[in-house]
Every structure is written in C-alpha cells, then in structure tokens.
Write a structure and sequence with these properties.
mainly beta; Jelly Rolls; seven-stranded antiparallel β-sheet; six-stranded antiparallel β-sheet; globular; ConA-like_dom_sf; Alginate lyase 2 domain-containing protein; Alginate_lyase_2
Length: 221
C-alpha cells in the first residue's frame, strides 16, 4: 500500500455515505488499569435502549474522534482495530512515539502531535481488506487488512515498546459509523448527533508490567 503524496489535501466530509450508530454502556466498554477506578475518569454517554455490541466481521466501518496526547507520553498505542488472523492481535495500531503518531512503529503518520487536539478518521473495509487513515481530514496512509473473524474499534492508552513512565491520552466526540449499504442489517436506530460529548481521560502509571507489541486494552466498541 502507498502513503499519500506530499501534496496532501483536505478531503470532503469523510462521513458522507455513512450513518452514525449509537453508543451506550451496552456497546461501550471501559477497560482500565487494575489500580485506577472507573470513577476516576470523566465519561458521559447518550442513552438508547439495550443493544448488542458492535463487533463486526464484514462491511465498511468508520471510527471518528478527536484525540489528545500530552507531552512526554510515548511508546503507547492510542487507537486500534482489534482482531486479526494467525498470531496477530490487531489489524491496526496507531501509536505515539516521541511526539509523532505512527502506523505501528512506522511509517510516521503525523509529527508534532503532543499537546494539541487532532481529528482522527479510520475507515476499515473488511471485504476489500483495507484500512485508510485520515488525520485532521487529510489522508495519510492506507494499509492492508490482517484478516480475522471479528473486529472492534478501541481508543485509549496502552504501553508498547519503550513506553514512558506516565501515559495518557484524551478523547472526545467519539463516533462510530457504518456504510449506508449495510446499516439496515444492524437493526438499530441511528442518530445524527454525537454520542460522546464530554472529554474522556485515560491515565496510567506503569507498575513494572511488560506487554508485547500487539497487546491491547482500554476502550472497545
């Protein structure tokens, strides 16, 4: 797969052709460090009637959110697509290393991201086995999928190679969208408004644990 050329341009509304689907505590799971209570975080969710989760195995799905990585947080995964075939755990990891976002360890997707809000869009076409990444509306990378029977979007913070002692990422305006072509298969109501309107903080101090490159945690949809 090829990265975008140096003549990046802002794309049209990336959610055109997609329908936002609701998030609530039935489909939004908080996974946390063992020593950090959920009450220590800030979380506000819109509420809908009970639904099953949004793990998916086909179609075209999109994650959209605004993220923030504080200065000196490094060696962490901040967003991922969980699920892959063979020995892999993930189809995608977006990591923060020394102030840059990268696709796994490379290539670099965006430099100078510390201490600023950025908009992230990830589009996963399961059947075509492609993942497209956009940062601040600009196409930055396309990668091949990695198979797997089921997938889920996750965001938060989790240690990877050469992790900093203190790790944090913040997320707001989180949206999950599905292609218009398959929304009727979900059997759920849709909404035009954001489902997560408040900032969500994810803080973690290392306690000496060690994790592999494809270990995953934090929020799952």
């Amino acid at each position: 797969m090829q990265r975008a050329s140096s003549s990046h341009h802002v794309h049209r509304n990336l959610t055109d052709g997609f329908t936002q689907i609701p998030l609530d505590h039935k489909v939004f799971e908080i996974q946390r460090p063992y020593d950090v209570p959920e009450s220590a975080r800030t979380l506000q969710l819109c509420k809908w009637s009970a639904q099953d989760g949004y793990d998916y195995s086909s179609g075209v799905w999109q994650f959209e959110a605004q993220g923030f990585v504080p200065r000196d947080t490094s060696g962490v995964c901040v967003m991922q697509i969980f699920g892959a075939s063979h020995l892999r755990a993930t189809t995608l990891m977006i990591r923060a290393y020394k102030g840059s976002l990268s696709y796994y360890r490379s290539p670099v997707l965006a430099p100078n991201i510390w201490n600023r809000w950025f908009k992230l869009n990830v589009i996963h076409d399961v059947d075509a086995s492609t993942v497209k990444i956009y940062i601040d509306g600009i196409f930055v990378h396309e990668a091949a999928g990695h198979g797997g029977a089921s997938h889920a979007f996750k965001c938060g913070v989790y240690s990877q190679n050469d992790a900093s002692h203190y790790m944090e990422s913040r997320w707001k305006g989180i949206k999950l969208l599905v292609s218009e072509l398959i929304k009727s298969c979900l059997g759920v109501a849709v909404t035009n408004g954001p489902c997560l309107e408040e900032e969500e903080h994810h803080n973690k101090h290392l306690q000496g644990e060690s994790h592999g490159c494809d270990d995953v945690d934090d929020n799952g949809f």
